[in-house]
Amino acid sequence: MTAVAAKRRFWVEDGSSVTSARGVEVLDTPLLNKNTAFTRQERAELGLEGLLPAAVQTLEDRVRRAYEQYHEQPTDLLKNVFLAMLQDNDEVLFYRLLTEHLREMLPVVYDPTVGEAIKRYSHEYRRPRGVYLSIAEPDRIEAAFQDLGLGAGDVDLIVASDAEEILGIGDWGAGGIGIAVGKLAVYTAAAGIDPGRVIPVSLDVGTNNEALLNDPDYVGNRHSRVRGQRYDDFIDAYVRTATKLFPRALLHWEDFGPSNGRRILERYRDRICTFNDDMQGTGAIVLAATLSAARVAGTRMRDQRIVIFGAGTAGVGIADQLRDAMVRDGLERGDATRRIWCVDRQGLLTDDMTALRDFQNPYARPAAEARDWAGTGGIGLAEVVANVRPTMLIGTSTVHRAFTEAIVKEMARHVDRPIIFPLSNPTERIEAMPGDLIAWTGGRGLISTGIPVPPVTYKGVTYAIGQANNALLYPGLGLGAVVARAKRISDGMFAAAADAVAGLVSVNTPGASLLPQVENLRQVSATVAVAVAKRAAEENLAQAPLKDPIQQVQDAMWQPEYRPVRAG
Ligand SMILES: NC(=O)C1=CN([C@@H]2O[C@H](COP(=O)(O)OP(=O)(O)OC[C@H]3O[C@@H](n4cnc5c(N)ncnc54)[C@H](O)[C@@H]3O)[C@@H](O)[C@H]2O)C=CC1
Ligand SMILES: CC(=O)C(=O)O
Ligand SMILES: [Mg+2]
């Protein structure tokens, strides 16, 4: 046994967990603990006799009880807290429960309730999960990771957030670890990423959220956000250390502010295996929904006219992938870019504006084009929609109800099947609710949302609303990258993932969803993983041989089942 394995308390041999831990230490190790499901022999070997009641139960027994306990929780937040406790106590049980009730529990573990849990993080705090890195101690990053007791080959995936733009709810400082934990739970439930081979990371660079700074219970660094060189050096130290200690790990970036998120991605994307989920994962799932919508509408990618409301991390990430898809459909890059109009706080982005952010510049419209568009309040969304006559309207603004009845009806006057994606999370930020959009467009709208929503019935047709949330994409992407041991995550791998998702959808019946249903997430993720791994191999980015990618993906998927545990 190596020193690392000893620190980690257990290792796997021939399908069994072998552990040096005994007694309560075993019960305190969530990936080892089976609680009442330990057999008599295991109890004797591991020093658990007397620490557990007499009955020896099965995983199914334990799932049944946990499900009942879950339903005793009166609110979604308390359900989230309950599931977090379960995860900290018995991880196999947590994942079996989550996998069996994915549609019911995904909104509690993840979007939208995870947003509420992040806001309440310091108050609901019970025990830590993940690695907490502080900008005050960049020299301790290596020691912090080593405290986990993991070896160089033990980590497949690290999700890190600095929590500046959590979902659509802004800056939540140290509570942002919750989005890394939530994203990782989805990786495992949706794609079978081994929960023992992942690390959630909080990059605590301070917070500008004054409610947190003045909250006596706040558990993070109590100062404003550090920016500039010190921030970049901290990120660099994180990347250097993580890639040195865990050379196989994919680094996933989540919920950074727009300029940091993009700068970080540009800096590392050609050097290491990494991606930004808000820009690239979102772009790819929206592309998948767009491909389905275009199939229903009988139109081509290259013919879309796209208005994006909210040109931040997600909005411009979506623009990039829709532009690239139009290029693949035969347009010149410049012509494709000119089929996209971005609207932000200052209205339509035009090239005479001085305060555009660098990543917005490519989408700035010639000011002359819009000279006559201004209404009384400048060139806002209503003016842009009236003049552009878009085929697609995408919301990544966090502005609730921004897609008004007037705007949507104006759009629907000029296009047979208006494609409308209000993608902002969580529920209180969505630009319009699907029921309204379907009614305002007389049932012609092709709708997808970021939050989960129930089907809508309108004039006898039931419309299933696909969830255009990156959660339908990144788990499979990550699994494919892990199976291929990808050196990089390329644009081609995202395009392959989007095509794979769109390929799973049958849009022939009226009201059909534009995206696969959440219940089928494991199948979706497996299909995406195969497509991504194959593309990595085609682009010479795979470091593992891919002889039978379908079987390799199946074999790589961790299953929530109790393993035998032996004393070692
Ligand atoms: N469905 C999905 O998979 C995803 C959804 N999102 C959602 O998209 C929203 C935006 O997220 P990010 O892009 O990360 O944030 P961000 O802060 O980078 O971008 C938001 C943009 O909206 C703009 N904006 C704010 N108020 C506006 C207004 N009144 N009019 C026009 N523009 C306005 C901001 O200036 C900014 O450019 C969030 O609600 C987030 O939850 C983000 C990532 C994935
Ligand atoms: C879904 C997601 O990543 C977000 O809203 O930020
Ligand atoms: Mg996000």
TrEMBL record:
GO BP, sorted A to Z: malate metabolic process
Pfam families (UniProt xref): malic, Malic_M
Record-listed a divalent metal cation binding positions: E254, D255, D278
Keyword NAD (UniProt): yes
Active site positions: Y110, K183
Keyword Transmembrane helix: no
SMART domains attached to this UniProt entry: malic, Malic_M
Residue ranges that the Swiss-Prot or TrEMBL entry lists as coiled coil: none
GO CC terms in record: cytosol
Chain ranges of the Malic enzyme N-terminal domain: 87-269
Annotated positions binding (S)-malate: N425, N469
Single Gene Ontology MF annotation: metal ion binding
Family matches, as PANTHER family: MALIC ENZYME-RELATED, NAD-DEPENDENT MALIC ENZYME, MITOCHONDRIAL
Assigned protein family: Belongs to the malic enzymes family.
Record-given protein name: Putative malate oxidoreductase [NAD]
